[in-house]
Amino acid sequence: MKYFFLFIISILLYSCGEDKNKIETRTVFRYNESAGITSLDPAFARNQANIWGCNQIFNGLVQLNDKLEIEACIAKSWNISEDGLLYTFFLRDDVYFHKHEVFEDSNGRKVTATDFVYSFQRLADDQTASPGAWIFNNVALKNGKFYFEALNDSMFQIGLKNPFPPFLSLLSMQYCSVVPKEIVEFYGKDFRKNPVGTAAFKFKMWKEGVKLVLLRNDNYFEKDGDKQLPYLDAVAVTFIIDKQAAFIEFVKGNIDFMSGIDASYKDELLSREGKLNPEYTDKFNLITQPYLNTEYLGFLMDTSLRVIKNNPIRIKKVRQAINFGFDRSKMMRYLRNNIGTPGIYGFIPDGMPSFDTSGKIPYTYNPDKCRKLLSEAGFPEGEGLPEIKLSTNASYLDLCTYIQSQLGELGINIKLEVNPPATLREMIAQSKSMFFRASWIADYPDAENYLSLFYSPNFCPKGPNYTHFSNSKYDNLYELAGAEINDSIRYSYYHKMDKLIMEEAPVVILYYDQVLRFTQKNIVGLGSNPMNLLTLKRVKKI
Description:
Layout: H1 2-16, E1 28-32, H2 48-57, E2 62-64, E3 70-72, E4 75-80, E5 86-91, H3 113-124, E6 141-142, E7 145-146, E8 148-152, E9 155-159, H4 167-171, H5 181-187, E10 201-207, E11 211-216, E12 223-224, E13 227-228, E14 234-238, H6 243-252, E15 257-259, H7 266-269, E16 284-299, H8 316-324, H9 328-336, E17 341-342, H10 367-376, E18 388-392, H11 397-408, E19 414-418, H12 421-429, E20 435-441, H13 448-451, H14 472-482, H15 487-504, E21 507-520, E22 523-524, E23 540-541
Parallel strand pairs: 1-14, 18-19
Antiparallel strand pairs: 2-3, 4-5, 5-9, 6-7, 8-9, 10-11, 11-14, 12-13, 15-21, 16-20, 16-21, 17-21, 22-23
């Protein structure tokens, strides 16, 4: 079967090699979005598909570079008060909304501070029902409204209730894009499919489930040195649901870019070491780097719940034994083609600026340590240890079966319960699963986003603390970090919290994920970043 598949691929490559170099398609960047886009309104940029689409059309006050550093965007500079409560932004005077018949000026309308007041109030308004409204939970009130104030056309101010050092990172999210009031009111709910922004590409057409087309914004404000951005003439997005069919289109040259990899062609495209297989190295480029996604198994730690009172996972040494009881490196090589990094350190993933491998318990595979911990917990060689049920979904069944097998050899009997993804999420949110597979993808590039999962006031369903981990020392460190503006001091708090999590073992880290980007050879300038954000304004198609 494999050789037949290779034969078909080779025919497709040969037959389509000439077509993909046609002059008329040279500056159109084409990618497929199998998940589908549900809205191009940045207030609803809650998933990667919507975020990628909105990122081409809209801008915010600030943006992230590929190193996840905050850079100027519509705000050319900003000041933060000494107490960390007042943020003042100074806006560029050359940013215009895309041309539209509603605007009096045929070139579009200049963006002012009042546009940010409107955009942020709209995002926070309950009537908008934006999933990104939480971003402004810490914004203070002024005269009964959120403290968003236009001091003049070019000065915009935000006031916070409490200091929160990652706040600038939050403002880089697509939720915080600026939108024009008159266009939103003109289209109403249909703004989602008639977006008007300020970014490098402007909306042309969208036939839902079929194709989205964006055209070059000739009036874009950012430049590459003295060269006008963007370089591309257009962006075309298709919505082929079947990932193997999309891969065939990529091989044919009808798609320029592909993100991630599906099990249906994983072994065909990649070697066991996670490199491009030799037959594809002359055809495609592979861009890879750490991805801010921690894949893990979580233990429900709340001993006040009846389901856990007599469960062995309440014992720390049993949880630690499970952490030492399977070989993550072997798991990654044979089940993941080394896509990702074995999760032997903390919950903060590789790729995060505060990621640190020193001073933590490295949970490398250690059968002797596992047996010793089980014996100290009162279960020598696993004798008398009750069966432990692990809830997962079908996508991760291979990993969980591997873990089940290795732990079984050491006397830890795991029973696998496979649930639909939505059912598993509901079980975790309602604290109905004692041992579960989960993941956490960063909303913003600060470790606080990860560490909030273990802060006791965040017990689910009120917050993201799905394990119900509670530790007064941890909570104190979390609060100290939240009030600390100095990055190096704040990072030291983060490292202490991460070490404490590893010692108490409320989770079993499986791996830190990896960004995989495949492009045709004629695509240059496509960067990569640990948030896996797609930015096309500097991309060239040769």
